[in-house]
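ok so heres the complex, two chains, lmk if somethin looks off
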Amino acid sequence: MRITAFTQLILVLAVTAWVFLLPVPMVATILALELVLLLYIKHDRMTMAAIGALTVFTGMMIVLQLLFGSSLYVSLTGGLRMFVMTTAFLCLLAATKIQDIAQALVEKFHLPCEYAFMLTTALRFVPDFLTDSQTTLDAQSCRGYSNRGNVLKRLYSYLAVVKPWL
Amino acid sequence: MIEAQAVNFAYRRGEPVIFDISCTIQDGEFVALLGHNGSGKTTLSRLFMALDHPRSGQVLVDGNDIAKLEPADLSVKVGYVFQNPDLQILEDTVFDEVAYGLKCKKMTEGIIKKQVADALTAMGLEDLVDAYPRALSFGQKRRLGVAAALALQPRTLILDEITNGQDEQEKEDMMAYLRKLNEEKKITIILITHDMNIARKFTKRVLVLNDGNLVFDGATHDLFDGKNNIEQWGLKQPVLSKLGAQLGLEALTPEEFCQKVELKAGDSK
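and the predicted structre for the whole thing:
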């Protein structure tokens, strides 16, 4: 059974609303379900990389919130909500063609074609971007780049992967 | 020396793409890795560089299993040059670009200067030491990629489609530099290519992959002598080889071929 792009978009919007309305344990359950679903739909290197990057980004967000004076509880729930919303979007992208999403946005949500085009154009670059980043990472590894050491060291050395794209 | 022992490989959750390949590439060889698109050439070469690891079997570099190693660990033994040079350029001068690997290995200033100079000279880029890498021609960028790998002084170079996107002169220049590296510095060259003429003219041994299987491993002239039906593996016989096989002549260049035809015609008169 296939769920249409329209239904999936509604689900993503629903998840976005639920993360603010439901209690934290329920939100955490949604996250677990989403991760299982995502890995069931697509269990490849790119998906793992996306989950990894999202985890790092969430961690950074939690740290920043803590640094700016939020309590640990608020920081963690904020991070969790963001993670759940983004993972829902990743599930949508993994399960549906970008063209189908654009078509649903235009036909069902009456989004102007220009905005749908902007969205599809932006999303179209994501797989290319991930492929290129992997190639760059491999190429720099072959020249001695190693992602070892503490977090700061790793972040600094990762510039060797980011710089060729700029 | 690179040795593959009964190597099998499949990408995660994918169909197997390399089937039970065993081969040994000795030090100082100039080898071509041929095959149609998707035959497994790049995949096999990635296994040689520890960019991927076999599902079963072993890859040995200088007799040591590389299953637990990363490409960075191998970079002083094996250099790998990717197809797209733009995806690895990160410094603002040719010198710094070539020095990147040596800085990663925390070499001293003196060693860096010497090894960069040697690598640039070996690839004919010594006059471009302060040039902005992105402003170089495509052929120069490709030579820069080889120089960057060479700076770490590996004993083996794996070059993925190194002559792609270059004009005939640039191809000839590139291959002349590689031949020199192979003959004078005894560096093992593994050339992944679709260009049968390059393989025929410059390499001494050929490995042919077809749908993940090693279907030919032997001398280059044996592959192109007309006795093998190489079309069945998605390869095309170079015109000169075809003519040579028909006439019972062996020649690497058109000039040599013409000379031999003239001699044969003279003999028959």
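quick notes: Residues 238-269 of chain B form one domain. thats all i got rn
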